[in-house]
Structure formats: structure tokens, C-alpha cells
Amino acid sequence: MRYYTCDNCGKDLSKTDSLRYTVTIHIQPNLTAPPMESEDLAEDSIGAFADMLADDETPLEIELPKAHTLELDLCPHCQSRFLADPLGRENRKIRFSSN
Fold first, then answer.
1. Confidence of residue 30 (pLDDT cuts 50, 70, 90)
2. Going by C-beta distance under 8 Å and a sequence separation of 6 or more, which residues neighbour residue 11?
3. pLDDT at 41
4. φ/ψ (deg, to 5) at 78
5. Distance CA 67, CA 78 (A)
6. What Cα–Cα distance (Å) separates residue 22 from each residue in 3, 17, 55?
7. Cβ(27)–Cβ(68) below 8 Å
8. How many CB atoms lie within 10 A of CB 13?
9. Whose CA is closest to 21, among 39, 10, 42, 7?
10. Rounded to 5 degrees, what are φ and ψ at 71?
């Protein structure tokens, strides 16, 4: 038997009557180039590229950022809290006492 716990509160979800939610988050880099502006077209980009290729210290291989996938098991209570505030912004707010 597999043993599951809520990744947020630690509740045991292994029992057959325990409802468990699986959250899958896929994080990947957005490699879309920004739109070109008129001043970008005015630059001598071919000359700058030629200078970069002539420079022996410039690496030609570019390491692209990697994608990541996270999987979380949540109990019903934590799942509803996650849906209400997926980035946890409410927990980061500063709360002042009323004195």
C-alpha cells in the first residue's frame, strides 16, 4: 500500500476513505522574444553580432533554462485554501494589531 500525506498540513491520506487532490505545477521558461522597436532596427545588429563572433571569449553554446514539474498531494481543506490563494499572497500580508 502506498502512503500519502497532505504536502501542506501533513494529514494522513492513505486511508481508503480519505479524499486526496493532486496538484501538478509545470514551470517552464518563456523564450518568446519581446517585440522589436524602431530603435532596435536602427542599431547595427549585424556588426555587433560579427564582433561577438570574433571575440574568442564569447561562448557559442547557450545553456537554456530548464523546465520543472512539481506534484503535491493535498487534503480537501488544503485544496480549497490553495484554490482560494494559489500563490500564498494572503500569508505574506503584514497584519498590525489594533492597539
1. confident
2. 5, 18, 75, 78
3. 65
4. -70, -30
5. 26
6. 14, 16, 50
7. yes
8. 19
9. 7
10. -125, 130
Region 20-32 average pLDDT: 92
Q: Which three cell numbers stand for residue 57?
A: 571569449
Q: What is the pLDDT of residue 17?
A: 75
* Helix (H) or strand (E) segment spanning residue 51: helix 45-54
- Residue 31 has a pLDDT of 82
18 vs 40, higher pLDDT:
18
Q: For the chain, which residues make up each domain, given as ranges?
A: 1-28+67-88
Q: Please name which of 88, 84, 78, 68 lies closest in space to residue 22, comparing C-alpha atoms.
A: 78
**In 3D, which of 65, 80, 89, 64 has the Cα closest to residue 23?**
80
Cell numbers 494572503 correspond to: 90
pLDDT (tens digit per residue) in 33-65: 777 777 666 666 677 777 777 766 656 577 878
pLDDT of residue 46: 72
